[in-house]
Amino acid sequence: MGRSAEEEEEMNNNTGSTKTTISISKSWSNVVGKIPVDDEIDLTMEKSETNVKITMADIKDEVEYWSTAVVCYVLGSNPPQVVIDGYFRRIWGGLGIDKVAQLNRRVFMVRFHSIESRNKVVEEGVQMFDRKPMIVKPSKSDMEITKEQMENIPIWVRMVGLDVKYWGRTSLTKIVGLIGKPLRTDAATTKRERLTYARVLVEVKLNQEYPTSIRFENEAGKIVEQKIHYEWKPVMCEKCRNYGHELNECPKFIKEEHEKNEKKQELEIQEK
Ligand SMILES: [Zn+2]
User: How far is the CA of 133 from the centre of ligand 1 (A)?
Assistant: First the structure.
């Protein structure tokens, strides 16, 4: 190979004309000469030299804009936007929806006019859509929702009788960390307005174990056992592998049982 593109450009620049005119008039052929047919052009060097770095300042406005939004998707269903749009406006219309936007085939963003409305929706947690669970996540700066991220579900847990001395940020983080990834407390817990139980939003994985009690060692070296109440947890139907209903509520299971019973009755009639 002859000279690299940079060298050629350097040479062109040295011919006297200003950079501006060169950048307008240059084409592939006068920069690199005749494009070789067989040789591959290594672009990795080019890439590292023109690396683009986005900073927090660059995205600040967008992050701010979406801070009053939640990310929603229905487990085991893929409703069209027009349908789910109507649903959102039915359940949350009173809170002041600004817009509903589709992030990808299954994921929607719902933006509210105020942060209070958005927080209220997050505090309500999982909603039901056509008997299937609709997951509600607080939006983050990282708004790309991959398939794996869709398997991380925020759910609310209650810890009844948890001593108030363990309601601080670090204690709760440690204790709830035994279940999943702690995300936030609700307002009543933060403001100590309701002392009967601490309520924490925790990110769990689909199909993980959901312990009914956890144990931790307290400041005096004693083991404390704490019961965990899940306001909702992603149960999977063992028959149809869908989320949101148990086996005895499964339409497929009910239909099959019904057909089995009918056959049985037919046989009994024939035997008589
Ligand atoms: Zn089922």
Answer: 13
Report how far ligand 1's centroid is from the alpha carbon of 244 (Å).
8
Q: 205 alpha carbon to ligand 1 midpoint, in Å?
A: 20
- CA of 70 relative to ligand 1 center, distance in Å: 28
Q: How far does residue 254's CA lie from ligand 1's centre (Å)? A: 9
Ligand 1: centre distance to CA 238 (Å): 7
pTM for the model: 0.69
Per-residue pLDDT reduced to its tens digit, 101-148: 998 889 999 999 999 999 999 999 999 998 889 999 988 756 667 877
Cβ-contact 110, 70 below 8 angstroms: yes
Report CA(230)–ligand 1 centroid distance (Å): 21
Distance 136 CA to ligand 1 centre (A): 22
pLDDT single digits (tens) 163-177:
999 999 999 999 999
